[in-house]
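This part of the workshop introduces the protein records we will be handling. As an example, a complete record with its sequence and its C-alpha coordinates follows.
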Amino acid sequence: MSLDNLRREACVTAIDHQTRRHFLHGCTTGMGAMWLASQNASQAQAANRFQPIHDARNPLSPVAPPLPAKVKRVIYLHMIGAPSQLELFDYKPDLERLDGKDCPQSFLEGKRFAFIQGTPKMLGPQYPFAQYGESGAWVSDRLPHFAKHVDDVCFIKTLQTDQFNHGPAQLMIHTGQARMGYPSIGSWATWGLGTENEDLPGFIVLLSGGRQPRVGKALWSGGFLPSVYQGVQCRSQGDPVLNIADPTGVTRDSRRTMLDTLNKLNLRANAEYGDPETLTRIAQYEMAFRMQSAVPDAMNINDEPAHIHEMYGTRPGKESFANNCLLARRLAERNVRFIQLFDWGWDSHGAAKSEALNEGFKTKCEQMDRPIAALLNDLKQRGMLEDTLVVWSGEFGRTPMRENRGGTEMKFVGRDHNPGATTMWMAGGGVKSGFTYGETDPVGYSPAENPVQLRDFHATMMHLMGMDHNRTSYPFQGLDQKLTGVKPARVIEEVLA
Protein backbone atom coordinates (compact mmCIF):
# COMPACT_ATOMS: atom_id res chain seq x y z
CA MET A 1 0.00 0.00 0.00
CA SER A 2 1.34 3.43 -0.94
CA LEU A 3 2.15 6.06 1.64
CA ASP A 4 -0.70 8.26 0.39
CA ASN A 5 -3.16 5.41 0.80
CA LEU A 6 -1.90 4.73 4.34
CA ARG A 7 -2.37 8.40 5.25
CA ARG A 8 -5.86 8.44 3.69
CA GLU A 9 -6.89 5.30 5.63
CA ALA A 10 -5.55 6.71 8.90
CA CYS A 11 -7.51 9.92 8.33
CA VAL A 12 -10.74 8.00 7.64
CA THR A 13 -10.20 5.88 10.76
CA ALA A 14 -9.67 9.02 12.88
CA ILE A 15 -12.85 10.59 11.53
CA ASP A 16 -14.82 7.39 12.23
CA HIS A 17 -13.70 7.49 15.85
CA GLN A 18 -14.30 11.20 16.32
CA THR A 19 -17.65 12.03 17.93
CA ARG A 20 -19.64 15.15 17.22
CA ARG A 21 -18.74 16.34 20.72
CA HIS A 22 -15.02 16.04 19.93
CA PHE A 23 -15.44 17.83 16.62
CA LEU A 24 -17.37 20.73 18.14
CA HIS A 25 -14.87 21.05 20.94
CA GLY A 26 -11.89 21.15 18.60
CA CYS A 27 -13.19 23.22 15.69
CA THR A 28 -11.07 26.24 14.95
CA THR A 29 -13.63 28.92 15.83
CA GLY A 30 -14.05 27.70 19.38
CA MET A 31 -17.81 28.13 19.08
CA GLY A 32 -18.33 24.44 19.65
CA ALA A 33 -16.51 24.53 22.97
CA MET A 34 -18.61 27.48 24.05
CA TRP A 35 -21.81 25.63 23.14
CA LEU A 36 -20.69 22.50 24.98
CA ALA A 37 -19.86 24.55 28.07
CA SER A 38 -23.33 26.10 28.02
CA GLN A 39 -24.91 22.64 27.65
CA ASN A 40 -22.90 21.27 30.56
CA ALA A 41 -23.82 24.30 32.68
CA SER A 42 -27.52 23.86 31.84
CA GLN A 43 -27.36 20.17 32.76
CA ALA A 44 -25.63 20.94 36.05
CA GLN A 45 -28.19 23.63 36.81
CA ALA A 46 -31.06 21.28 36.02
CA ALA A 47 -29.54 18.62 38.27
CA ASN A 48 -29.51 21.14 41.11
CA ARG A 49 -33.11 22.21 40.51
CA PHE A 50 -35.87 21.11 42.89
CA GLN A 51 -38.46 19.40 40.71
CA PRO A 52 -41.53 18.22 42.65
CA ILE A 53 -42.90 14.87 41.54
CA HIS A 54 -46.67 14.73 41.92
CA ASP A 55 -48.98 11.80 41.36
CA ALA A 56 -49.70 11.74 37.61
CA ARG A 57 -53.43 11.58 38.34
CA ASN A 58 -53.30 14.34 40.96
CA PRO A 59 -51.03 17.35 40.25
CA LEU A 60 -51.85 18.68 43.75
CA SER A 61 -50.72 15.53 45.58
CA PRO A 62 -48.58 16.35 48.64
CA VAL A 63 -44.82 16.37 48.15
CA ALA A 64 -42.28 16.15 50.96
CA PRO A 65 -40.36 19.45 51.13
CA PRO A 66 -36.65 19.18 50.35
CA LEU A 67 -35.75 21.04 53.58
CA PRO A 68 -37.14 20.72 57.11
CA ALA A 69 -40.39 22.73 57.06
CA LYS A 70 -41.38 24.95 59.97
CA VAL A 71 -44.91 25.58 58.67
CA LYS A 72 -47.54 23.51 56.90
CA ARG A 73 -49.72 26.35 55.68
CA VAL A 74 -49.69 30.13 55.16
CA ILE A 75 -52.38 32.76 55.76
CA TYR A 76 -51.37 35.98 53.99
CA LEU A 77 -53.29 39.16 54.88
CA HIS A 78 -52.72 41.92 52.32
CA MET A 79 -54.13 45.39 52.93
CA ILE A 80 -54.62 46.79 49.43
CA GLY A 81 -53.52 50.41 49.13
CA ALA A 82 -50.65 50.33 51.66
CA PRO A 83 -51.60 51.28 55.24
CA SER A 84 -49.49 53.97 56.85
CA GLN A 85 -46.90 52.33 59.10
CA LEU A 86 -46.43 55.71 60.78
CA GLU A 87 -50.00 55.55 62.15
CA LEU A 88 -49.82 51.88 63.16
CA PHE A 89 -46.44 50.39 64.11
CA ASP A 90 -43.47 52.73 63.49
CA TYR A 91 -43.58 55.37 66.22
CA LYS A 92 -41.34 58.40 65.59
CA PRO A 93 -41.23 61.08 68.33
CA ASP A 94 -38.93 63.26 66.17
CA LEU A 95 -41.53 63.28 63.42
CA GLU A 96 -44.09 64.42 65.98
CA ARG A 97 -41.87 67.40 66.83
CA LEU A 98 -41.42 68.27 63.14
CA ASP A 99 -45.15 68.29 62.43
CA GLY A 100 -46.15 71.24 60.19
CA LYS A 101 -42.60 72.30 59.31
CA ASP A 102 -41.26 72.47 55.75
CA CYS A 103 -39.75 69.22 54.55
CA PRO A 104 -35.92 69.42 54.27
CA GLN A 105 -34.78 69.52 50.66
CA SER A 106 -32.43 66.59 51.29
CA PHE A 107 -35.56 64.42 51.66
CA LEU A 108 -36.79 65.46 48.22
CA GLU A 109 -33.67 65.45 46.04
CA GLY A 110 -33.58 62.55 43.62
CA LYS A 111 -36.85 61.10 44.97
CA ARG A 112 -39.90 60.11 42.90
CA PHE A 113 -43.37 60.65 44.29
CA ALA A 114 -46.79 59.67 43.03
CA PHE A 115 -48.31 63.09 43.83
CA ILE A 116 -46.15 65.34 46.04
CA GLN A 117 -44.84 68.49 44.33
CA GLY A 118 -42.87 71.45 45.59
CA THR A 119 -42.02 71.53 49.29
CA PRO A 120 -44.52 69.59 51.43
CA LYS A 121 -44.97 69.89 55.18
CA MET A 122 -43.79 67.21 57.58
CA LEU A 123 -46.64 65.25 59.14
CA GLY A 124 -46.44 63.84 62.64
CA PRO A 125 -48.26 60.66 63.71
CA GLN A 126 -51.99 61.24 63.76
CA TYR A 127 -52.66 58.92 66.71
CA PRO A 128 -51.02 58.30 70.08
CA PHE A 129 -48.75 55.28 70.53
CA ALA A 130 -47.97 53.10 73.53
CA GLN A 131 -45.78 50.09 74.25
CA TYR A 132 -47.36 46.69 74.82
CA GLY A 133 -46.42 43.24 76.05
CA GLU A 134 -43.13 42.00 77.40
CA SER A 135 -41.53 42.90 74.06
CA GLY A 136 -42.50 46.57 74.47
CA ALA A 137 -43.63 46.85 70.86
CA TRP A 138 -45.04 50.23 69.84
CA VAL A 139 -48.61 50.16 68.52
CA SER A 140 -51.02 53.06 67.97
CA ASP A 141 -54.39 53.32 69.68
CA ARG A 142 -56.06 52.34 66.38
CA LEU A 143 -55.35 48.65 67.09
CA PRO A 144 -56.28 47.99 70.74
CA HIS A 145 -57.16 44.30 70.16
CA PHE A 146 -54.10 43.51 68.07
CA ALA A 147 -51.86 45.25 70.63
CA LYS A 148 -52.61 42.43 73.11
CA HIS A 149 -50.90 39.94 70.77
CA VAL A 150 -47.60 41.69 69.98
CA ASP A 151 -45.65 39.06 71.91
CA ASP A 152 -46.74 36.53 69.27
CA VAL A 153 -45.57 38.74 66.40
CA CYS A 154 -42.29 39.32 64.56
CA PHE A 155 -42.13 42.84 63.07
CA ILE A 156 -39.94 43.76 60.10
CA LYS A 157 -39.76 47.56 59.89
CA THR A 158 -37.46 48.07 56.91
CA LEU A 159 -39.12 46.25 54.02
CA GLN A 160 -38.22 47.91 50.71
CA THR A 161 -39.48 47.72 47.14
CA ASP A 162 -38.43 49.43 43.91
CA GLN A 163 -42.03 50.13 42.83
CA PHE A 164 -43.97 53.21 43.94
CA ASN A 165 -47.26 52.68 42.08
CA HIS A 166 -49.89 50.31 43.44
CA GLY A 167 -50.31 47.79 40.60
CA PRO A 168 -46.62 47.04 39.99
CA ALA A 169 -45.91 47.10 43.74
CA GLN A 170 -48.69 44.59 44.43
CA LEU A 171 -47.35 42.33 41.69
CA MET A 172 -43.87 42.71 43.13
CA ILE A 173 -44.81 41.62 46.63
CA HIS A 174 -46.88 38.64 45.46
CA THR A 175 -44.99 37.41 42.40
CA GLY A 176 -41.49 38.86 42.75
CA GLN A 177 -41.89 40.76 39.47
CA ALA A 178 -43.52 44.08 38.57
CA ARG A 179 -44.93 42.60 35.34
CA MET A 180 -47.89 40.31 34.79
CA GLY A 181 -47.45 36.68 33.83
CA TYR A 182 -45.49 35.40 36.82
CA PRO A 183 -46.63 32.91 39.47
CA SER A 184 -47.73 34.18 42.86
CA ILE A 185 -46.27 32.92 46.13
CA GLY A 186 -49.29 30.67 46.64
CA SER A 187 -48.78 29.09 43.22
CA TRP A 188 -45.11 28.38 43.95
CA ALA A 189 -46.17 26.80 47.25
CA THR A 190 -48.79 24.50 45.75
CA TRP A 191 -46.57 23.58 42.79
CA GLY A 192 -43.67 22.75 45.09
CA LEU A 193 -45.55 21.10 47.94
CA GLY A 194 -49.04 20.18 46.77
CA THR A 195 -51.78 20.06 49.39
CA GLU A 196 -52.97 17.52 51.94
CA ASN A 197 -56.70 18.01 51.37
CA GLU A 198 -57.67 16.46 48.04
CA ASP A 199 -61.23 17.85 48.26
CA LEU A 200 -60.23 21.53 48.29
CA PRO A 201 -57.90 23.67 46.17
CA GLY A 202 -54.42 24.11 47.58
CA PHE A 203 -54.51 27.89 47.07
CA ILE A 204 -57.65 29.83 47.98
CA VAL A 205 -58.21 33.61 47.68
CA LEU A 206 -60.73 35.69 49.67
CA LEU A 207 -61.58 39.34 48.90
CA SER A 208 -63.17 42.10 50.98
CA GLY A 209 -63.55 45.87 50.83
CA GLY A 210 -65.83 46.01 47.81
CA ARG A 211 -63.18 46.01 45.08
CA GLN A 212 -60.51 43.79 43.60
CA PRO A 213 -56.83 44.77 43.53
CA ARG A 214 -55.85 47.01 40.62
CA VAL A 215 -54.20 44.17 38.70
CA GLY A 216 -56.93 41.71 39.67
CA LYS A 217 -56.35 38.00 39.28
CA ALA A 218 -52.74 38.49 38.22
CA LEU A 219 -51.94 38.55 41.96
CA TRP A 220 -53.00 34.94 42.37
CA SER A 221 -52.12 33.74 38.88
CA GLY A 222 -50.18 30.56 38.21
CA GLY A 223 -48.16 32.46 35.59
CA PHE A 224 -46.06 30.05 33.54
CA LEU A 225 -46.72 27.19 35.99
CA PRO A 226 -49.50 24.73 35.02
CA SER A 227 -52.89 26.37 35.53
CA VAL A 228 -53.92 23.91 38.25
CA TYR A 229 -51.65 25.83 40.65
CA GLN A 230 -53.33 29.23 40.32
CA GLY A 231 -55.43 30.57 43.20
CA VAL A 232 -59.15 29.81 43.35
CA GLN A 233 -61.21 32.83 44.36
CA CYS A 234 -64.00 32.07 46.83
CA ARG A 235 -66.73 34.43 47.99
CA SER A 236 -68.00 35.02 51.51
CA GLN A 237 -71.41 36.08 50.17
CA GLY A 238 -73.61 33.93 47.91
CA ASP A 239 -72.24 30.74 46.38
CA PRO A 240 -68.62 30.35 47.54
CA VAL A 241 -67.52 29.52 43.99
CA LEU A 242 -69.42 30.48 40.85
CA ASN A 243 -71.25 27.55 39.24
CA ILE A 244 -70.53 25.31 42.25
CA ALA A 245 -74.07 23.91 42.17
CA ASP A 246 -75.36 21.53 39.49
CA PRO A 247 -77.91 22.95 37.03
CA THR A 248 -81.59 22.31 37.72
CA GLY A 249 -82.50 18.73 36.84
CA VAL A 250 -78.94 17.38 37.11
CA THR A 251 -78.45 15.06 40.09
CA ARG A 252 -75.15 14.22 41.73
CA ASP A 253 -75.43 10.64 40.47
CA SER A 254 -75.94 11.78 36.89
CA ARG A 255 -72.98 14.18 37.25
CA ARG A 256 -70.85 11.26 38.44
CA THR A 257 -71.91 9.17 35.43
CA MET A 258 -71.07 12.03 33.06
CA LEU A 259 -67.61 12.45 34.61
CA ASP A 260 -66.89 8.72 34.48
CA THR A 261 -67.67 8.70 30.77
CA LEU A 262 -65.59 11.83 30.17
CA ASN A 263 -62.68 10.33 32.13
CA LYS A 264 -62.73 7.20 29.96
CA LEU A 265 -62.51 9.33 26.84
CA ASN A 266 -59.66 11.39 28.30
CA LEU A 267 -57.76 8.26 29.37
CA ARG A 268 -58.10 6.90 25.85
CA ALA A 269 -56.80 10.18 24.43
CA ASN A 270 -53.88 10.12 26.90
CA ALA A 271 -52.98 6.55 25.87
CA GLU A 272 -53.01 7.59 22.23
CA TYR A 273 -51.25 10.97 22.40
CA GLY A 274 -49.43 10.93 25.76
CA ASP A 275 -50.21 14.57 26.54
CA PRO A 276 -49.73 15.09 30.33
CA GLU A 277 -52.23 17.95 30.29
CA THR A 278 -54.94 15.35 29.63
CA LEU A 279 -54.30 13.76 33.04
CA THR A 280 -54.30 17.23 34.59
CA ARG A 281 -57.70 17.88 33.02
CA ILE A 282 -59.07 14.66 34.55
CA ALA A 283 -57.72 15.69 37.96
CA GLN A 284 -59.36 19.12 37.67
CA TYR A 285 -62.73 17.63 36.74
CA GLU A 286 -62.50 15.30 39.74
CA MET A 287 -61.47 18.16 42.04
CA ALA A 288 -64.43 20.23 40.85
CA PHE A 289 -66.76 17.32 41.61
CA ARG A 290 -65.40 16.92 45.14
CA MET A 291 -65.48 20.68 45.69
CA GLN A 292 -69.25 20.69 45.19
CA SER A 293 -69.53 19.04 48.61
CA ALA A 294 -66.38 20.22 50.37
CA VAL A 295 -66.43 23.94 49.55
CA PRO A 296 -69.96 24.79 50.81
CA ASP A 297 -69.15 22.98 54.07
CA ALA A 298 -65.78 24.71 54.52
CA MET A 299 -67.19 28.14 53.67
CA ASN A 300 -70.25 27.90 55.91
CA ILE A 301 -69.59 29.91 59.08
CA ASN A 302 -73.18 29.65 60.35
CA ASP A 303 -72.39 26.60 62.45
CA GLU A 304 -69.65 28.41 64.41
CA PRO A 305 -70.57 29.02 68.08
CA ALA A 306 -71.76 32.44 69.19
CA HIS A 307 -68.59 33.26 71.12
CA ILE A 308 -66.50 32.78 67.94
CA HIS A 309 -68.72 35.19 66.00
CA GLU A 310 -68.41 37.66 68.86
CA MET A 311 -64.62 37.30 68.95
CA TYR A 312 -64.20 37.91 65.21
CA GLY A 313 -67.08 40.39 64.79
CA THR A 314 -68.48 38.34 61.92
CA ARG A 315 -71.79 38.82 60.13
CA PRO A 316 -72.74 35.62 58.29
CA GLY A 317 -74.01 36.18 54.76
CA LYS A 318 -72.12 39.47 54.32
CA GLU A 319 -68.84 40.17 52.58
CA SER A 320 -66.37 41.35 55.23
CA PHE A 321 -62.77 41.08 56.30
CA ALA A 322 -63.97 39.59 59.61
CA ASN A 323 -65.83 36.81 57.80
CA ASN A 324 -62.75 36.10 55.69
CA CYS A 325 -60.49 35.84 58.75
CA LEU A 326 -62.82 33.24 60.23
CA LEU A 327 -62.96 31.44 56.87
CA ALA A 328 -59.16 31.47 56.79
CA ARG A 329 -59.08 29.60 60.10
CA ARG A 330 -61.63 27.07 58.81
CA LEU A 331 -59.59 26.52 55.63
CA ALA A 332 -56.38 26.21 57.64
CA GLU A 333 -58.06 23.54 59.78
CA ARG A 334 -58.72 21.64 56.56
CA ASN A 335 -55.04 21.89 55.59
CA VAL A 336 -55.40 24.23 52.63
CA ARG A 337 -51.77 25.06 51.81
CA PHE A 338 -52.00 28.80 51.03
CA ILE A 339 -54.85 31.12 52.03
CA GLN A 340 -54.69 34.66 50.65
CA LEU A 341 -56.86 37.52 51.96
CA PHE A 342 -57.03 40.86 50.13
CA ASP A 343 -58.78 43.80 51.82
CA TRP A 344 -59.31 46.89 49.67
CA GLY A 345 -59.50 50.50 50.92
CA TRP A 346 -56.15 51.39 52.56
CA ASP A 347 -54.94 54.08 50.12
CA SER A 348 -54.68 57.06 52.49
CA HIS A 349 -53.75 59.98 50.22
CA GLY A 350 -56.16 62.42 51.80
CA ALA A 351 -57.78 63.21 48.45
CA ALA A 352 -61.22 62.54 49.95
CA LYS A 353 -62.79 61.82 53.32
CA SER A 354 -62.67 58.07 52.70
CA GLU A 355 -58.90 58.34 52.06
CA ALA A 356 -58.10 60.61 55.00
CA LEU A 357 -55.88 59.40 57.84
CA ASN A 358 -58.20 61.11 60.31
CA GLU A 359 -61.40 59.73 58.70
CA GLY A 360 -61.55 56.69 56.40
CA PHE A 361 -58.36 55.23 57.85
CA LYS A 362 -60.05 54.98 61.26
CA THR A 363 -62.87 52.93 59.77
CA LYS A 364 -60.47 50.53 58.08
CA CYS A 365 -58.55 50.03 61.32
CA GLU A 366 -61.79 49.21 63.13
CA GLN A 367 -62.65 46.65 60.44
CA MET A 368 -59.21 45.02 60.71
CA ASP A 369 -58.30 45.16 64.40
CA ARG A 370 -60.66 42.67 66.03
CA PRO A 371 -60.63 40.02 63.26
CA ILE A 372 -56.82 39.82 63.11
CA ALA A 373 -56.53 39.61 66.89
CA ALA A 374 -59.22 36.91 66.87
CA LEU A 375 -57.44 34.95 64.13
CA LEU A 376 -54.16 34.92 66.05
CA ASN A 377 -55.92 33.98 69.28
CA ASP A 378 -58.05 31.30 67.60
CA LEU A 379 -55.08 29.64 65.89
CA LYS A 380 -53.07 29.74 69.11
CA GLN A 381 -55.74 28.23 71.33
CA ARG A 382 -56.27 25.42 68.81
CA GLY A 383 -52.55 24.65 68.70
CA MET A 384 -52.36 25.67 65.03
CA LEU A 385 -50.15 28.75 65.27
CA GLU A 386 -47.14 26.48 65.73
CA ASP A 387 -47.33 25.21 62.14
CA THR A 388 -49.23 28.08 60.47
CA LEU A 389 -47.48 31.21 59.24
CA VAL A 390 -49.59 34.40 59.33
CA VAL A 391 -48.25 37.31 57.25
CA TRP A 392 -49.54 40.91 57.21
CA SER A 393 -48.44 43.61 54.76
CA GLY A 394 -49.33 46.34 52.33
CA GLU A 395 -47.44 46.89 49.08
CA PHE A 396 -45.20 49.78 50.25
CA GLY A 397 -44.98 52.40 52.99
CA ARG A 398 -46.07 56.01 53.41
CA THR A 399 -44.08 59.24 53.47
CA PRO A 400 -43.33 61.23 56.64
CA MET A 401 -44.46 64.28 54.65
CA ARG A 402 -48.05 65.36 54.21
CA GLU A 403 -49.27 64.83 50.68
CA ASN A 404 -50.07 67.85 48.55
CA ARG A 405 -51.52 68.09 45.06
CA GLY A 406 -49.96 70.58 42.66
CA GLY A 407 -47.96 71.95 45.58
CA THR A 408 -51.15 72.90 47.47
CA GLU A 409 -52.12 71.45 50.83
CA MET A 410 -55.34 69.49 50.67
CA LYS A 411 -58.41 69.63 52.89
CA PHE A 412 -57.95 66.11 54.24
CA VAL A 413 -54.82 64.64 55.81
CA GLY A 414 -52.89 61.98 53.89
CA ARG A 415 -49.46 60.61 53.00
CA ASP A 416 -47.91 59.75 49.62
CA HIS A 417 -46.33 56.42 48.58
CA ASN A 418 -42.96 55.50 50.06
CA PRO A 419 -41.22 52.42 48.61
CA GLY A 420 -38.16 53.12 50.79
CA ALA A 421 -39.47 51.54 54.00
CA THR A 422 -42.57 49.98 55.43
CA THR A 423 -43.54 47.65 58.27
CA MET A 424 -44.79 44.12 57.80
CA TRP A 425 -45.21 41.38 60.38
CA MET A 426 -45.29 37.61 60.63
CA ALA A 427 -46.57 35.32 63.36
CA GLY A 428 -46.51 31.59 63.91
CA GLY A 429 -44.33 28.67 62.99
CA GLY A 430 -40.63 29.25 62.61
CA VAL A 431 -40.36 32.98 63.39
CA LYS A 432 -39.30 34.71 66.57
CA SER A 433 -42.19 35.98 68.65
CA GLY A 434 -42.12 39.36 70.38
CA PHE A 435 -39.26 40.45 68.13
CA THR A 436 -38.55 43.46 65.90
CA TYR A 437 -36.02 43.44 63.07
CA GLY A 438 -34.76 46.58 61.36
CA GLU A 439 -34.99 50.23 62.31
CA THR A 440 -35.91 53.26 60.21
CA ASP A 441 -34.42 56.74 60.48
CA PRO A 442 -35.82 59.24 63.04
CA VAL A 443 -38.73 60.17 60.75
CA GLY A 444 -39.49 56.70 59.35
CA TYR A 445 -38.45 57.54 55.79
CA SER A 446 -35.61 55.09 55.08
CA PRO A 447 -33.87 52.18 56.83
CA ALA A 448 -31.29 53.17 59.39
CA GLU A 449 -30.17 49.56 59.80
CA ASN A 450 -30.97 46.11 58.41
CA PRO A 451 -32.87 46.92 55.18
CA VAL A 452 -34.93 43.99 53.88
CA GLN A 453 -35.53 43.51 50.17
CA LEU A 454 -38.70 41.78 48.96
CA ARG A 455 -36.64 38.93 47.55
CA ASP A 456 -35.17 38.36 51.05
CA PHE A 457 -38.69 38.18 52.46
CA HIS A 458 -39.70 35.72 49.72
CA ALA A 459 -36.61 33.59 50.37
CA THR A 460 -37.50 33.50 54.07
CA MET A 461 -41.10 32.48 53.43
CA MET A 462 -39.97 29.66 51.15
CA HIS A 463 -37.42 28.53 53.72
CA LEU A 464 -40.13 28.31 56.39
CA MET A 465 -42.18 26.12 54.03
CA GLY A 466 -39.18 23.85 53.48
CA MET A 467 -38.08 25.10 50.04
CA ASP A 468 -34.71 26.48 48.98
CA HIS A 469 -35.34 29.65 46.96
CA ASN A 470 -32.21 29.04 44.88
CA ARG A 471 -33.19 25.50 43.85
CA THR A 472 -36.95 26.02 43.51
CA SER A 473 -37.14 27.09 39.88
CA TYR A 474 -39.10 26.42 36.72
CA PRO A 475 -37.67 26.56 33.17
CA PHE A 476 -39.38 29.26 31.11
CA GLN A 477 -38.19 31.48 28.25
CA GLY A 478 -34.64 30.14 28.47
CA LEU A 479 -34.23 30.92 32.16
CA ASP A 480 -34.66 28.94 35.35
CA GLN A 481 -37.30 31.26 36.79
CA LYS A 482 -37.45 31.80 40.55
CA LEU A 483 -39.76 33.68 42.89
CA THR A 484 -36.72 35.62 44.13
CA GLY A 485 -35.61 36.58 40.60
CA VAL A 486 -32.04 36.82 39.35
CA LYS A 487 -30.57 39.12 42.00
CA PRO A 488 -28.95 37.64 45.14
CA ALA A 489 -31.42 36.95 47.93
CA ARG A 490 -30.93 35.68 51.46
CA VAL A 491 -32.99 34.02 54.14
CA ILE A 492 -33.37 36.49 57.02
CA GLU A 493 -31.84 34.20 59.63
CA GLU A 494 -32.22 36.85 62.33
CA VAL A 495 -36.03 36.48 62.42
CA LEU A 496 -36.06 32.68 62.55
CA ALA A 497 -36.87 30.99 65.86
User: Anything to note?
Assistant: The chain has a mean pLDDT of 89. The CA atoms of residues 46 and 480 lie 8 Å apart.
